[in-house]
Amino acid sequence: MRILVVEDEPKVASFIKRGLEQAQNVVDIASTAAEADYLVSVQDYDLLILDCMLPDEDGRKLCRRLRARGVDLPVLILTAKDSTADKVLGLDSGADDYLTKPFDFTELLARVRALGRRRGRPLLQPIAIADLTIDPVTRRVTRGGQVIALTPKEYALLELLARRVGQVVTRAEIIEQVWDMHFDPTSNIVDVMIKMLRDKIDRRFEPKLIQTVRGAGYMIEDPS
């Protein structure tokens, strides 16, 4: 799933992002309600994880505004506000679920999976593009019925591209999502990994799925 986490504490945001990415999600971070509002308007998300105590606005107000605009993506409020009254206000603002800090990450993941199932786009649903199949549960990858062995980084890169089929993924995004580090424009690590992945996914098969978009990044194109 593609998840937007709205959290203004950098350490908390980084912790949540890392854990969700390890569970094979694509994660964006917004530190303000205004930034989150903009990202939701330009990107299709499967889930919004929302803190209440944001520097520019109460997260519940943002949730009400999104619902008023007809935005129907699942919203999970994740906040230190733990009173019954706060929970009622959060759910009445349009949130689908409410989890208080501190929290157990396994519980957060379970709630994320449940919200994904409710929307009809299960977190662990297999991905199929042409004759390429990716099983997020077992991390088993096949093409043309042949099992393809990938390293953990190769798999993470492939799933990132596959979950955004038809969309360009920039080198900076790949570095952040696969290696969890800031982009170094002088590094060719992404290009090297793409070549290794192509050797396994595309070299012996047709059509070629992994495309280079010059000056932008890479994408998987669905030939169907």
**Order of helices and strands, N to C?**
EHEHEHEHEHEEEEHEHHEE
Can you tell me the CATH topology of the largest domain?
Answer: Rossmann fold
Rg value: 19 Å
Overall shape: it is elongated
User: How many independent structural domains?
Assistant: 2
Distance between the termini: 22 Å
As laid out across the biggest beta sheet, the strand order is: 2-1-3-4-5
* Structural classification: alpha/beta
Helix content bin: 40-55%
Give the uncertain stretches in residue-range form: none
Quaternary class = single chain
Overall strand count: 12
Proportion of beta-strand residues: 15-25%
CATH superfamily of the largest domain: Response regulator
The CATH architecture of the largest domain would be: 3-Layer(aba) Sandwich
CATH top level class name of the largest domain: Alpha Beta
Total of helices: 8
How much is the average pLDDT? 90
**Largest sheet composition:** 5 strands, parallel
Structure keywords:
224 residues; alpha/beta; Rossmann fold; Arc Repressor Mutant, subunit A; 5-stranded parallel β-sheet; 4-stranded antiparallel β-sheet; 8 helices; 21% strand; transcription regulation; phosphorelay response regulator activity
Protein described:
Helices cover 40% and strands 21% of the residues. By secondary structure, it is α/β, with parallel strands linked by helices. It has two domains: 2-118, 3-Layer(aba) Sandwich (Rossmann fold); 127-220, Orthogonal Bundle (Arc Repressor Mutant, subunit A), CATH 1.10.10. The longest helix has 14 residues, at 105-118. Strand 7 (132-135) and strand 8 form a beta hairpin. The strands form three sheets. A five-stranded parallel β-sheet has the order 2-1-3-4-5, sandwiched between helices. A four-stranded antiparallel β-sheet has the order 6-7-8-9, covered by helices on one side. It has a three-stranded antiparallel β-sheet with strand order 10-12-11. It is elongated. Pfam families: Response_reg, Trans_reg_C. Residues 124-222 form the OmpR/PhoB-type domain. One of its GO terms (molecular function) is transcription cis-regulatory region binding. Keywords: DNA-binding, Phosphoprotein, Transcription, Transcription regulation, Two-component regulatory system.
